Amino acid sequence: MSHSYLDMINDYRDLYRLKLEEKNRLCGEIRQMIIGVATENGGHLASSLGAVELVVALLSVFDPMKDKIVFDVGHQAYAYKILTGRKDRFHTLRQWGGISGFPKREESPYDHFDTGHAGTSISAAIGYAKARDLLHQSHNVIAVVGDASISNGMSLEALNQIEELKTKVIIVLNDNKMSINFPIGGLAKHLSHLSTNPSYRKMKDALRSACKNLPLGGSLIEESLKKLKYQIKTALQPINMFEALGINYWGPFNGHNLEELEEVFKLAKAFDESVLIHVITKKGKGYAPAEENPTKYHGVSPRRPRPDAEIVSWSKACAECVEKIAEKDNRVVCLTAAMEEGCGLSRFKKRFPDRFFDVGIAEEHMLTYAAGLAAGGMRPVTFIYSTFLQRAGDQLYHDIAMQKLPVVISLDRSGLVGEDGETHQGLLDIPWFKSVPGLIIASPRDVADMEFMFSNLIKNCDMPAIVRYPKGDAPKRLARDVDAPCAPWLKAEVLRHGREVLLIGHGGVISMLIESCNKIADIYNIDPTLVDLRFLKPLDLETLNKLFVDHSLVIMAEESYAIGGIGEQLLGFAQRVNKHIRWEHMAVPDLYVPHGAKDEQLRYVGICCDEVVKKVSEYLETAPR
Amino acid sequence: MSHSYLDMINDYRDLYRLKLEEKNRLCGEIRQMIIGVATENGGHLASSLGAVELVVALLSVFDPMKDKIVFDVGHQAYAYKILTGRKDRFHTLRQWGGISGFPKREESPYDHFDTGHAGTSISAAIGYAKARDLLHQSHNVIAVVGDASISNGMSLEALNQIEELKTKVIIVLNDNKMSINFPIGGLAKHLSHLSTNPSYRKMKDALRSACKNLPLGGSLIEESLKKLKYQIKTALQPINMFEALGINYWGPFNGHNLEELEEVFKLAKAFDESVLIHVITKKGKGYAPAEENPTKYHGVSPRRPRPDAEIVSWSKACAECVEKIAEKDNRVVCLTAAMEEGCGLSRFKKRFPDRFFDVGIAEEHMLTYAAGLAAGGMRPVTFIYSTFLQRAGDQLYHDIAMQKLPVVISLDRSGLVGEDGETHQGLLDIPWFKSVPGLIIASPRDVADMEFMFSNLIKNCDMPAIVRYPKGDAPKRLARDVDAPCAPWLKAEVLRHGREVLLIGHGGVISMLIESCNKIADIYNIDPTLVDLRFLKPLDLETLNKLFVDHSLVIMAEESYAIGGIGEQLLGFAQRVNKHIRWEHMAVPDLYVPHGAKDEQLRYVGICCDEVVKKVSEYLETAPR
Asked: Which residues of chain B have a CB within 8 Å of the CB of A368?
């Protein structure tokens, strides 16, 4: 490259003086920057690569200082970040203190709405649009939404609302035919039908020529548009799904053709009604490995030392466990909401294609579908991330737990999740779901216990349940003798019998607590007791109450919000048994934990070995000996 | 009436021997029974009246002993209850110990899925259908869903999934053009377009004649159906929205014509693919007041003594308060999810039509739409029942609170709700939302404080907030001097300064606690202290910690689940200040509270004056004096 356009420009305003060819070369450079940073730091590579021209065209036509651009999910927004003042900080993407992987209003005045979860952009955009109308302002509002997000129920609710509101919003449907894995459902088929239907292609040509001939500005434009509007209305018979909902549909357009995109965006800007612009892009565009395997490159992990071959992720271990159970029990079916790869289910899908359901980004439907399957005699296991289960809390309560239906929720990425940050933390599942009557909540510390829990839940226990596990690597065996059986069903397990100091935890924090025990013994010559709760609902009060009697400091650690955590609940029982207990709850304080490495996050919220030792030290200083 | 058909039959099996004319007369008798009971006990009168022929036709064609019929919401199911073994108990509808107003699996083997919240039936039905396929069974699965429920995001997610699953499910769309108030959105318009489109009417005629000529049984039927299928496919060009999603659409049919309904149900039963049957009914059919004003008769209250004209409901008081604020602040807009009447918003809508939005049964969309409005400079107030906010917990967390957007949620029907029962209790809002960082949660005890809270939230406090209030009557002033200002912002209020016993509460329980104070003073000669928390987040620890120091019994009462309630959280603070406090948390135990009068429910869960007195008595017996 003789010289770099990316070096030459400050931000999107410099796009105005670039020629088409120069912009195309700039797109290539932006891609290289994205590939470089995302393969190093981890990130949503493939989606952002697919949307580079889309972003450049948007920023060539709209002004994000006044126009509001809302990216759905935000996976597509890396080029947008680079071109709106964050080029020089882009190498800090997803790192502690660096820029976020998602749009964030606090990060930039150009980020108009925080996103992370799917399906929010159309609702937010029509909110922005209606506020503009009511406040007599005149800027543009654009939602950029992928084909996977648009089939989420919330998007569909918002689409249903548009005509009635009589406001103008521009929806750019970035259709990469992918969802996170592959297209799901009738809407995806309908989109692919629209993509190839000649009547729409004809429309596109009409639009293009109209656009070219438009004297942009002046009153001629209005007349041309009026005619065009009529043409659009008539050309679009037979109606498509969007037209059925009263929304103008234009497309499909080539999402990598800058000229075409800029033309249609200009037209949409001048048009006086809401319009959905259907744009076809290629996920992973410009990076061969991602183009070939866009699912693998949907989200890439930060570059880290090559892991031990022996180490397995929690996701994979759980999926394999359920697969083993499914071999012998053909009532077992697996469900996921667009997380086949993330939840390690590809092999299950291959082995049991009839018993695997990826419902797309439709968490609400997934849980009630699972309830129906269970009512019909199956044993569904639904794989979902903790953060996304927040989308289906009511279905868990109202459709599964209230009817005592035996659905097992395999809850991935619970607790702190690292680089995805605020929007993706799994800190609410305990506060929210511990209050759901009749639900079992299990939190295994290792693969051995996880296997025992799944197996018992599916084989012996006809109850609704959650098995909660963190992101990352799963210890195969932790504080457990080889071949020793797991502790009894619904019982806590005392991993270490000591005195005075009682450490309580569950799941991912147990290894930190084991380390803490050793340090406390070394430094203070106190041998603490360590108990793994294993089950968060129901709580094993029999075991705990005995321990509360003869310990004077309790440190309860968990990767959950402190408010509503299990620690809050346990204190009530402890206090009845032993009024003199000093109670320390080590959990996430009442704030949103930013993105960065998980280690940084744990230190930030104070869930770490050093803090445990510090609390023991404080106790020893003040406690009567 | 010479003799009663309803008296003559035991259940739906007796329908088989009735002639068409006799069934029609039976429908009239069922309507009379529904009107009699629902106007006495309260209930969802208008919807159930509209669906009598629909239910009779379903039960004439399908056998609910093996076929699975899933009613969405369940408002339409009264005739179904009467005809499936619950005729003699129907007079106990919605009463404590009586039959539920909604389908309940525990109540009857004919109720195949518990409902109450909208939009669940299609998901549940396809779950049942897929389970049937996997278990090689052969029964029919039918979802009966209203035009309001089908536009809920969850229904749309499920519709999107049907084609892909290659299973057969029959969806009966009961279109009464009503939603709870009136039709919302593009889909409603589309349905009305389909209702009048001649090509569909032609289809209907084709179906009817085909149906009549079908020799039901034998192999001829298959050939006829094959032909018919082709006819259907071709007749339905241009495609409609359902066809766009790959679902066969038949209709519209007259939902009060038994003969037509039975014909089409028989055909759907024999058809080998999923089909959506569009049926037009009249809400309130057969009861003149309800036909004329179906919104008013959507849900009717139990017959009770005529209330004092001075008494106002919480819903009405809140709506009027926001209306007053909106007069002076044109940034204020009101949103509701199909609860205009229920939340008392009709007058607001009339006065400020441009600033009122009923989004239909789309709680998720509503909250993020409100977030967009707030981001765009408005001050949205969203009116929603506590139980339905469970549907949009993630939107509250992810789209409103995380971005610190000034959306106020006016949370109606929080706490126990009486006759609607399990599915509609508002017991989760505290456990779920107290853990959302940055949210303010207010719980006023009377209208005066409610007005102060709304006014401050909208005028002075740019924060996301919930104002939580119960179902029923609002005291205008409670433990408050006329013209005395409200307690300071975010502060708890000590209503009575006493000693030894500290009663803590908020919202609806305060009047019960005042009564308890008087009883305790009378019986034990102890003057308790009474504090109204007013704000559940943030908690006023300054005031509380002072009180914890010199009281030895705390009774904290709240209409919330105990697990996750504020009482659980407060104990941690109390214990740090005073280890000798005896702590009694009077809240809802870990179970689902059944339907019945609210008084019965309060006694059942032990939130009442007698329990407070009992706890004081127990304390006095054991405490050192």
From this structure: 120, 123-124, 127, 154, 158
How do beta strands B312-313 and A529-532 pair?
Answer: unpaired
Query: What spatial distance separates the first Cα and last Cα of chain A, rounded to whole Å?
Result: 73
* Interval B125-146: pLDDT, tens: 999 999 999 999 999 999 999 9
β-pairing verdict for A312-313 and A473-474: antiparallel
**Tokens found for residue A376:** 């019909």
B623 is in an annotated binding site: no
* Closest CB from A359, A403, A569 relative to B105: A403
Residues of B in contact with A378 (CB under 8 A): 130-131, 134-135
Tokens of A137: 């302002």
Q: DSSP string of A174-195?
A: EE-S-SSSS--HHHHHHHHHHH
What pLDDT sits at residue A34?
Answer: 96
pLDDT at A493 over 50: yes
Query: Out of A154, A369, A579, whose CB is closest to B368?
Result: A154
Task: At A306, list the tokens.
Answer: 């090559």
Which residue shows structure tokens 């009305």?
A: B192
Q: Which CATH class is domain A494-622?
A: alpha beta
User: Which residues of chain B carry a pLDDT beneath 50?
Assistant: 1, 180-181, 198, 215-218, 230, 232-238
Question: Which of B86, B168, B283, B471 does the annotation list as catalytic?
Answer: B283
Contacts of B378 in chain A (CB under 8 A): 130-131, 134-135
Where along chain B do its domains lie? Answer: 5-289, 312-474, 493-622
Phi-psi region of A415 (alpha: psi -120 to 50; beta: other; left: phi over 0): left
Q: Do B127 and A161 count as a contact with CB atoms less than 8 A apart?
A: no
Note whether A594 and A102 are within 8 A (CB).
no
A106: nearest CA partner in chain B: B403
Q: Which of B70, B354, B369 to mutate to test the interface with A (most CBs of A within 10 A)?
A: B369
N-to-C CA span, chain B:
74
State the Cα–Cα distance between residues B58 and B539, nearest whole angstrom: 54
Instruction: Give the mutation candidate from B113, B128, B154, B189 for the A interface (greatest A CB count, under 10 A).
Output: B154
Q: Please provide the CATH number assigned to the domain covering B5-289.
A: 3.40.50.970
Taking CB atoms and an 8 Å cut-off, how many pairs form between chains A and B? Answer: 387
pLDDT at A51: 96
**Distances from the Cα of A593 to the Cαs of A414, A553, B134, B400, B425, in angstroms?**
14, 28, 44, 16, 32
Q: Do B431 and A564 touch (CB under 8 A)?
A: yes
> Given 3.40.50.1110, 3.30.1050.10, 3.40.50.920, 3.40.50.1950, which CATH number is that of B493-622?
3.40.50.920
Establish whether B147 is an annotated binding residue.
yes
Distance CA B456, CA B535 (A): 13
Q: Does domain A312-474 have CATH number 3.40.50.970?
A: yes
In sequence order, what are the residues at sequence separation of 6 or more whose Cβ sits closer than 8 angstroms to the Cβ of residue A218?
none
Q: Which residue has the higher pLDDT, A191 or A69?
A: A69
* The two domains A312-474 and A494-622 share their CATH topology (first three levels equal): yes
Rounded to an integer, what distance in angstroms lies between the CA atom of residue B239 and that of residue A306?
Answer: 53
CB contact (8 A) between residue A135 and residue B572: no
Considering only the beta carbons, identify the residue of B355, B423, B575 that sits closest to A575. Answer: B575
pLDDT digits (tens, 9 = 90+) for A139-179: 999 999 999 999 999 999 999 999 889 999 999 999 987 55
pLDDT at A299: 79
Higher-scoring residue by pLDDT: A299, A322: A322
A135·B368 Cβ contact <8 A: no
Full strand arrangement of the beta sheet holding B493-496: B493-496, B529-532, B500-505, B551-561, B582-588
Q: Which residue of A has its CA nearest to B140?
A: A376
Is residue B550 marked as binding?
no
